Structure formats: C-alpha cells, structure tokens
Amino acid sequence: MEFKYPYYLLFLLLLIPYIIWLIIKSKRSLPDIFMPTVSKYRFVSKTWRTRLVNLPSLLHIIFFISLVIIIARPQINNSSEDKDVEGIDIMLSVDISTSMLTQDFKPNRVEALKAIAKEFIGKRPNDNIGLTLFAGEAFTQCPLTTDHDMLIKLYDDADDEMAGRGTINDGTAIGDGIMNSLLRLRESKTKSKVIILLTDGVHNCGNVSPQTAAEIARQYNVRIYTIGIGRNGMAPFPIGYNSTQMVPVEIDEKTMTKISEETGGKYFRAEENQELSEIYDEIDKMERTKLSSMQHYKKRDIFEPFALVAFICLLSELLINILILKRLP
C-alpha cells in the first residue's frame, strides 16, 4: 500500500499534544470527596460505566487517524505482465534396450535416468518437450507438448522392459532414435530445436545410421546433445531373482562425439547418478529460454475500509456518550 498524498500523514503528529491534554484533563477532572478515612473504599471495584469513561477518547483518536489516512489517499498497485516467450523444442531420445537395466546407476540406468529427466523437465515450463524411446526400433512415447504433467505421466507409464520380453526388438538403433525425434521436430517453427540422446551401447541395428541421422538433423538446424551412460569396464547386470553378473560396458564414444559435433551439440559421459544430474544442469544452462516482458501498473484507491472504521468509531462514541455515560454532545 502507498499514499498519493503522504505529507498529509504529518497531521497525525497533532495526536501527541491531544493525548497529553487528555492525560492532564483526566487527572484534573477526578472528583474530590473529603472523608475522614478512605481505607474501607480501597477495594471497591469499578463499575462497568466507570471502565468506559476513556473509551470515547480512544474512539476519537482512531476516528482522527482513519480520517487522516483517507485524506492521504491510500492506494494499491494492480500489476500485470505481458511475456513474449521464445520457447525451445526438445525431444528426449532414450535407449530402453535390455542393457539399460544394468545396475551401475541406482537402482538401475533406466530408473535413474527417468528421475533426473523429470527434474530437467520441471525446470523448463516454457518449452515443448517430447519423448522418444528406442531399442532395436524406435517409437514416440509422447509428442512435443507443454503439458509436462502428462509428459511425466507417460514417461512413468513407459514399459521399460519391452525389449527384454520381446515386445519390441532388442538392440541399439541410435539412428532410428534420432530420426523418430526429428520427425517430431521437422515442423517446428521455433528457432531452437534440440535432441538429447541417451544410450549405453553401440549402434548395431535399425534402418538409419547415426551419421546419416546427424546430417539430416543439421539440415533441420537441430542440435543433438549425446550422453553415454555407464561406467568404464564392467558393471552388474540383473540375472534372475536378486542376483547379478558382471558384464562389459561398451559405448561408441567416437560416434556419439561425431553426432554432437556435426549438429553443434556436445557429447557427455555419465558414470553415476550425480554426473548425469550435472550433465542435465549443464544442458539446461546452455539451452536457456529467452524471455521479454512488459509490466503494467494500475493504481486503485482503498479508502473504503478506513471510512468504515471512522464511521463506526464516530457512531460508537456518540452512542456511548449519550446512552451509557449520559453525556450530551
């Protein structure tokens, strides 16, 4: 709250001499009754009328304060903001081959990636984000959308063990994963289009090679950030119920680097949950959404509550004086 005429508030200083005058007046106006002794009247309680003697003066002070505030014109700002948002279209292209169940990430690569990806999605409310899943073949789990709640739900509902059960072909079709994402981005009108490709293997099947997919992405001005997931050497893979065996980790880092360099992106290697989270944070900083805004202000007077308080105080003071204290105005 602010005041259009704040200098009128200086009138409140007049209350200081008025309060001093009330104190002096109350002491002088106390009735004197000469008694041989007053000790027996010491514990006589005050009547309720006696307790209300100073209430009219208090109401008068509140009335004066409210009146001064009304004269100073209290106001509040109603603001609105127009935003021109230049969003980014992002497709997450995620490997769900059986090797993604390896447990070098906690609880495994698939679930670790899902949790961290959801944090990344939550930080980018202005962007269209979609999800491609691939193993030996690729499909769209969620098209580009700003309904991130729905995107996260579809990601949670994704069957990450389809390749293991044979519902889709197992393998690592990196080129097909990129092409499926490109099909979702090719009609985009935004200036910034990005694919974040995550895999833990080597391209070994599919209809399109990673190099060809990268060349097509460059023609559509799509940057590809590639992330290789998995520790160097050996990693535990689940076998049967509650048992694991060590398997080799193979990531074609040379091809992943070429894909990124071809499109103006960058290659990352993540060997644990924290590193993967930091990679997402780095991509988030590199691909920031540009915002421009214009603020509008509209001031509105809010004297009504103070006018109501002043009226109630004035009316109460008159009624107390006339009906209770039996004083005439």
Keywords:
24% strand; 11 strands; 329 residues; alpha/beta; elongated; 6-stranded mixed beta sheet; 3-stranded antiparallel beta sheet
Order of helices and strands: EHHHEEHEEHHHEHEEEHEHEH
Could you name the ranges where pLDDT drops below 50 across 5 or more consecutive residues?
none
**Structural class by secondary-structure content:** alpha/beta
Note the main sheet.
Answer: 6 strands, mixed
Q: Reading side by side through the largest sheet, how are the strands ordered? A: 5-4-3-6-7-10
Described by the principal axes of the CA atoms, the overall outline is elongated
Total helical elements: 11
List the helices and strands and how they pair.
Blueprint: E1 2-3, H1 15-28, H2 48-51, H3 55-71, E2 74-86, E3 88-95, H4 109-122, E4 128-134, E5 138-145, H5 148-157, H6 162-165, H7 174-185, E6 192-199, H8 210-219, E7 222-229, E8 234-238, E9 244-248, H9 253-263, E10 267-270, H10 273-286, E11 290-301, H11 304-324
